[in-house]
Amino acid sequence: MTHPDAPTRQRVTQALRNQRIETPSWAYANSGTRFKVFPQEGVPRDPYEKIADAAMVHRLTGVAPTVALHIPWDRVDDYADLARYATDQGVTLGAINANVFQDNDYKLGSVTNPDPGVRRKAIDHLLECVDIMDRTGSRDLKLWFSDGTNYPGQDDIRARQDRLAAALREAYDRLGDDQRLLLEYKLFEPAFYTTDVPDWGTAYAHCLELGPKAQVVIDTGHHAPGTNIEFIVAFLLRAGKLGGFDFNSRFYADDDLMVGAADPFQLFRIMHEIVRGDALRPDAGIAFMLDQCHNIEPKIPAIIRSVMNVQEATAKALLVDADALAAAQRAGDVLTANAVLMDAYHTDVRPMLAELRADMGLDPDPIAAYARSGYFARIRAERAGGQQAGWGA
Ligand code: LRH
Ligand code: MN
């Protein structure tokens, strides 16, 4: 579909204009692997500077108006003041990510730890994060647990699920009416035998048990190689239990590379299920978040590129001729059905997106605009001293 007709173009550009992608505060800070964290010039030193960088990404892309925070990496004395600062910068604070994976007490687990005192400490952190949401105006409490075991027999798998369920229940019951709990699963790492929330089925089952304010987050780097992620998207959407995405890409494991960089076709297939499920609209409640680590590449341009990769995959998905696809599927015409999808995927949507940005009063090429802006030279000079922010791992 190289030249979509006017009504299609109108429908597609309107949907793209309304797209919302949340960027993660921690992607603006130093990050790396267990082998090395390579510091970069101009990296933020506090949550305010992270938000300033996120606001720059939004100014250039027009579709990244919220920033996810991670506690304690983004702990401040006055969260209401941080929220006001964000608004002044033209963005708002998004999901609040709890962190019960870096404290010495959590070696054998956080909410699943055999020691009730450690479990209490972990649950109190989850509750503290809801207090923070009350002050930042955030809707989502995002929970990822590194909890697991490394050797068979190390702990009782069922007992750990009981502990997890009890902790989730306490956090869930603390939520306000308009707040949600998003449960993220991950196959392995840092645990290498069992992980207490290893897959979408476990997350889904716990969310069903909790209630309507509990939804599943799909981190695209958290599956076994070969997993059909778009099937999980279709299933959870159909069940009304898809709360959001942590977008990134990978060649091997939880590589946290730029979304769409390693497998743009997979990202297209995922967005096709989103469009097919009519879940792209902001009021559909799906939080489209990036969760990435820019270990060697310049961070702000990498996040701009990532937002553009999501836009491109989304534009292609919106160009799928749904009627032709449905007709071929009904007719059992396998090759035509596949061809309809591939036709959309092979459409070069970059000119359409450049034109949309111009219509939105933005530079058609956000990456070039960033390079010309002088923003990097300014932050490099301003942020010369002080302690650069990072994971503190
Ligand atoms: C875990 C994870 C989780 C975050 C962390 C930064 O791998 O994906 O979403 O808390 O990365
Ligand atoms: Mn994640």
UniProtKB/TrEMBL annotation:
Enzyme Commission no: 5.3.1.14
Superkingdom in the source lineage: Bacteria
UniProt keyword terms in alphabetical order: Isomerase, Manganese, Metal-binding
Biological processes annotated in GO: L-lyxose metabolic process; rhamnose catabolic process
InterPro entries in the record: L-rhamnose_isomerase, Rhamnose_iso-rel, Xyl_isomerase-like_sf, Xyl_isomerase-like_TIM-brl
Xylose isomerase-like TIM barrel domain span: 77-254
Gene Ontology molecular function, alphabetical: L-rhamnose isomerase activity; metal ion binding
The keyword Metal-binding appears for this protein: yes
Top-tier EC class: isomerase
Protein name: L-rhamnose isomerase
Source organism of this protein record: Micromonospora globbae
